Amino acid sequence: MYKDCDRFVLQPSILKGLGWKLIRLWIMDWVDDPRKVTMILQDAIEAEAAAAKVAYDAEEAEKIQVAPRLEDIVVADVELEDDSDTSIQTVEEVG
Q1: Which of 44, 49, 65, 90 has its CA at 20 to 30 Å from residue 26's CA atom?
Q2: Domain count for the chain
Q3: Per-position pLDDT tens, the chain of length 95
Q4: What DSSP element (H or E) covers 88?
Q5: Spatial distance between the Cα atoms of 32 and 56, rounded to a whole number of angstroms
Q6: Structure pTM?
Q7: Distance of CA 19 to the CA centre of its chain
Q8: What is the DSSP letter of 18?
Q9: Contact criterion met (CB below 8 Å) for 21 and 48
Q10: What is the DSSP letter of 84?
């Protein structure tokens, strides 16, 4: 049977394993200074949003770099075996 202290340790580790970002706040901090706690939350949310944007931008930049540029595609005139028609194929298709 789990106790409250087990939940205090297990629940955050499970959520972190699922990719959650946790911010631990204490009720007494809120009672003492709710504006400070609000600022802590706001700063943490903004930091995570900025990190997510950087990761997204990097992923999008990688996708753009993977796409071949028109200048990088080399074409060659290749005759077909039956000599009835010629076709233009990329070097990657020929090789």
Answers
A1: 49
A2: 1
A3: 567 677 777 888 888 888 888 888 899 999 999 999 999 999 999 999 999 898 888 887 777 665 556 666 665 555 556 555 555 555 554 44
A4: strand 86-90
A5: 38
A6: 0.51
A7: 12
A8: T
A9: yes
A10: S
DSSP string computed for 42-75 = HHHHHHHHHHHHHHHHHHHHHHHHHSPPGGG--E
What is the residue range of 58's domain? 4-94
Q: How many CB atoms lie within 10 A of CB 56?
A: 10
Tokens of 45: 């949310």
- Please give the span between the terminal C-alpha atoms of the chain, in angstroms, as a whole number: 65
Give the DSSP per-residue string, 24-42: ---HHHHHH-HHHHHHHHH
Residue 78's identity, in one-letter code, is V
Phi, psi of 19 (to 5 degrees): 95, 5
Tokens of 5: 């202290």
